[in-house]
Amino acid sequence: xxxxxxxxxxxxxxVLLGVxxxxxxxxxxxxxxxxxxxxGEHATPDQMxxxxxxxxxxxxxxxxxxxxxxxALQGNLGESYYTHASITKExxxxxxxxxxxxxxxxxxxxxxxxxxxxxxxVKKNKLADNISMIIALxxxxxPVFWSGILLILLFSGILGILPSSGRIDPLLQxxxxxxxxxxxxxxxxxxxALGDALYHLVLPTVTLSLYSMAIITRMTRSAMLDTLKAxxxxxxxxxxxxxxxxxIKHALRNAMLxxxxxxxxxxxxxxxxxxxxxxxxxxxGIGKYAxxxxxxxxxxxxQGIVILVAVIFVFMNLIVDIIYAYLDPRIKFGxxxxx
Amino acid sequence: xxxxxxxNKLATxxxxxxxxAVQPAKPVREKREGMWRDVIAGIVxxxxxxxxxxFILILAVIAIVTAVAPGILPYDPYQQDLGQSLLPPSAExxxxxxxxxxxxxxxxxxxxxxxxxxGLIAVAFSLTIGVIxxxxxxxxxxxxxxxxMRIMDMMLAIPSILLAIAIMAxxxxxxxxxxxxxxxxxxxxxxxxxxxxxLAIKENDYVAAARVIGDSNFKIVFRHVLPNxxxxxxxxxxxxxxxxxxxxAALGFLGLGVQPPAAExxxxxxxxxxxxxxxxxxxxxxxLAITLAVxxxxxxxxxxxxxxxxxxxxx
Lengths: 339, 315
Fold this sequence. Notes:
Largest interface: A-B, 51 and 45 residues
Shape of chain B: elongated
Radius of gyration of chain A: 24 Å
Radius of gyration of chain B: 23 Å
Strand content of chain A: under 5%
Strand content of chain B: under 5%
Structural class of chain A: mainly alpha
Order of helices and strands of chain B: HHHHHHHHHHHHH
CATH architecture of chain B: Orthogonal Bundle
CATH topology of chain B: MetI-like fold
CATH superfamily of chain B: MetI-like
Number of helices of chain A: 14
Distance between the termini of chain B: 30 Å
Oligomer: heterodimer
Distance between the termini of chain A: 11 Å
Structural class of chain B: mainly alpha
Largest sheet of chain A: none
Largest sheet of chain B: none
Order of helices and strands of chain A: HHHHHHHHHHHHHH
Low-confidence stretches of chain B: 1-28
């Protein structure tokens, strides 16, 4: 097992290095000169040349990459072209907002997705199955920005019961702390602020969770259908256990293996969906920061965000693989034979 | 299209397929015809899939007709008329008008052109490169396989929409650049599918036989290996069109897609955002168009999969 984990961790390193090369090629080689965008139309050629020299853009590309990599390994992702603020700090300030949203979304998606999937499998080809599958299909087909807008229109515009933007009422905003408002407000015992933070979380969470929920529902249904056919389920029923007990203890528990994998992988893709969700709800996280930075060619910020998201994604995959190997001994033994 | 009609004919004449089946000289052709028949059977046997197929055909007709004969539309989708700004849906303007007084119904219709063509071209682009890379990796194996697939892993480590907007940031806005960005980010998916299919197929006896009679690697891959990987590729490509349409709309929504005054569904949604509460129709209809188009390709893909994979049909 340890050997397998070490092997998997070592495999992460070239992938992450590759990601830095890809994003570096995109923003430094493929991209047009950012100087006219950053300095504006009226900048003289001399000003632009000076700006490029200041930002190290005149160096040979390999040297730029080495400098970037050395900085990144020390936790320094460079400076914004506009504000000269440290990208690491800018990202760190926004990351909790995205993480809080993504965690809430994956929890909601998993709970509802598994429930709908189990229901659909148990009531196969009946009304409940059809409804669950239609919900899943809509969840997969609706663009996340459109569902967000429809929810705003209904719950903020027509019903006026939920806020359409922001993380919390500015007057209640907790200062310092972890940046995770749910944790910060609970630690301080500020229940009014906690309520307001949760209130702001509802619509973005629902929006962001829809797609993952649909995928988890489909996966749970098909995994459950497989286990429901298994001999041990029939045996359990035959020896007189109640339906509910068989469904949950025997069928669902065994179906959870592929479902866990999908949930882990969905967490990574949620970060992509967060980009659009945060834009719709003016959520001050790294997704909105990424879009804003792209729109003004602030490439160091784009590089930093892409690398951070890739790191999270790769480590989520790693964790999923390790959990999988732990739960399914066949994988572990397979590697033992190989090694 | 020609193939579809051929297969319809074949489906009604089972004797024809038996005849081809006994001709050992053309094993690949037989396989392919059988496959297309399965595709049609899968679509027809699944009502939702059939309706989706028809809906997609209608979308294609709308896209072609509005491109060839734009005069058929009741209003010019690009003509601004500030006197008609933000009119709600009515008998004159079915979907209402936008801030510039343009008819939204006409713009949604014209928007079909961009969404469908971006979907198809982006998938064709990523499919071509993905199939080539996946074939080389799967067939050659060894270090070539390792290098290609590790690069694919690296691309997969970045969420596709984030990678696409990073590429758009570098290339600048524009629809042809959006096609490149959307196409590039989905290459790894096709490469992976093709590679795994080829790994499974290349050990078969008929591939070994082709090698023995001296066929070139290129011929073996294209004549014997790829046709057998086609079912998975077709299913993935159909579903790929739906995600390409979604990605295109997302780029448009973020302001990275088409340039004004072009009509693109995602771009229309993005521009309508500031008027959300005042004129919700600016966002409802383009959003509905995106959802229906994506839904249709998803359902069509499901139907095709049912036809090609009997195991999934039983579910």
